[in-house]
Amino acid sequence: MSTDFQSARVALGARLRELRTEAGLNGKDIAARLGWARSKVSRLENGKQTATADDLDAWAHAAGAADQADDLKSRLRGLESQQRSWRRQLSAGHRPVQDRYVVEYRRTASVRGYEATVIPGLFQTPDYARHLLIQNAELMQSPRDTDSAVQARMKRQEVLYEAGKLFRVLVWEGALHALICPRDVMAGQLDRLVGLIGMSTVELGIVPFGAPLNLTPKHGFWIFDEERVVVETINTELQFESAEDIALYGRVWDGLNEAAAYGLHAHRLIARARAQVHPA
Known about the structure:
Layout: H1 3-22, H2 27-34, H3 38-45, H4 53-62, H5 69-79, E1 82-85, H6 86-89, H7 95-106, E2 110-115, H8 126-140, H9 146-156, E3 166-172, H10 183-196, E4 202-207, E5 221-224, E6 228-232, E7 236-240, H11 243-259, H12 263-277
Parallel strand pairs: 2-3, 3-4
Antiparallel strand pairs: 1-7, 2-5, 5-6, 6-7
Helix pairs in contact: 1-5, 2-3, 4-5, 7-9, 8-9, 10-12
């Protein structure tokens, strides 16, 4: 169990204890009101057990603080943030991770994403993806299953052609110029981006160099169905599900979106990058 998780669980328990004492109840009293064993009350208050949403609803009502139920459940969602090591995820190669993404994108209706340094996997060509996956396998010293991983990444892109989906994706202009592959491969990748402009399921925005910004473009992130945020660092994949985190990343996305270029302007930015990468 992570230290952050346990600390947050202890803090939630302390808040439960606070509500109980504010109501003038001891442990025996609230256990009786809830119909629970006193040991469960003790475990929850001391951070030894994770409450369920129903537990928190019941506690708030038993303590005469029904208006605090939403706050308690928000704290619980904060506990549900997940941290997954890339080293552990890639122990069997990239293919299992790509297969998981296929499933996740199929069950998702709307996505808001931002990438600062790389073309998003959802939009990558096979050759561009192959270079990235080889580099990552070397960095993480993981099994190299590049061909099957590329196939799985391409399979994920089938969702772009499903009615009812919407992918609103922002890319920092610098990602259009980052030569992580041969120039001809990058040229093909930029041509692929141009082809996405105008698709009914895709809204592609480019955040230009020199655009006025109300915040600095930091790491990439993805918001799935406004319910979950995924952030990838060099060594870890983080998932956040609390309302506060989702709202925070939503505000960041909105701020970047205000500066983003779409349509013909985005097309010109991509064309400019292509001309520099691979002059005609």
